[in-house]
Amino acid sequence: MKLGILGGSFNPVHLGHLFLADTALCALKLDRVVMIPACRSPFKPDAEGMENSAGTRVEMLAAAIAGDSRLVIDACEIKREGISYTVDTLEDIIARYIPDGKPALIIGDDLAVDFPKWRDSEKILKLADVVIARRLNSAAVDYPFPHTLINNEVMNISSHAIRKKISEGKDWRSLVPAGAAVIIEDRRLYGFSGAGAGEECSHALILRVEAAARETLSIERFIHSRNTAILAHDLCRRFNINPMSGYLAGIAHDLAKQLDSEQMMKLAKKDKAAITELEKEKPNLLHGRAAAVLLRERFCVHNEDVLEAVAVHTSGRENMCSLAKIIYIADKLEFSRNIDPAARKICNGDDLDNIFFTVFGKTVSKLQSRDLNLTEETLRLLDRMKEKNR
Ligand SMILES: [Fe+2]
Ligand SMILES: [Fe+2]
Prior knowledge:
alpha/beta, six-stranded parallel sheet, 390 residues, binds fe (ii) ion, Hypothetical protein af1432, 19 helices, 51% helix, Rossmann fold
């Protein structure tokens, strides 16, 4: 196995790190790159909180490289504690991985200029082939020790700059792999103070539910669910509801839509509410209730508003919470629905009840024009709407 070794603080991991690993794998025809988060870097001995953040840095790295078997995380420097010296790490890695030939020690050109001053640099040269990649400089430098230079593109990204952007509320998300960005937002790392998802609707949870929707639904149904989530997110923001609860309920609302009738019925029965004759005849009417059960049982969602919004998105219900009204609206008006543009403009109103009852009224009229039976819940809500309009 031809091995590459890429150390760093990974505080946080960013796309520059992944690009560097990828470039080294291809340019040097490596089988694997071992990524080694430092406990405390000898180059940044005063960096605050490095040892304390070790677990989180490893988690972010793991999230960033998920599914890529070419990349390995090795926590040897964290286990060793204290200042992390490359020479110790190399001996340890060679003993455990037994690579074919010398491993490639990949270092950025920002650190390479000082390589001769590293602890036991002569021994490092005996143990590994030093490979210098362009990190921040594109100018040619004459390094006075044996090395291979990778002529890679320079990605001008640094963890320091990302931490600064996060703390200043500037754009940083596109610089950090999605899995790591989710951890930063959910745990409010590096002074992140943007609109967080909140514990109950964390980004990590949303990613899991979205992945399940992508895997189980047809691509058209998935796009519909995602568009519903986006419109629900925007409506929630306008009506002062946690936008991520809107996204979560939107992405999940049709999660059970493509299950067979028997599975749908089995799941829906678990919510303990009665199953009507009409629902027995047309189990598809239960797909919202079934999805709510899936959310609670498989994804441990206990936010009652999210569960109600998913459960009643087909029929509506008297005294629905605001989030349930929003999901009902978003499901009917999202971008991929081929509807009259004027009907879509209803969304711009500033009275949620008015928007909801307009959309509900039109949906019911459409069902009636197709001679479809309405559920008992829908009929009760229709009566309520008529009373309101009297
Ligand atoms: Fe649905
Ligand atoms: Fe839907």
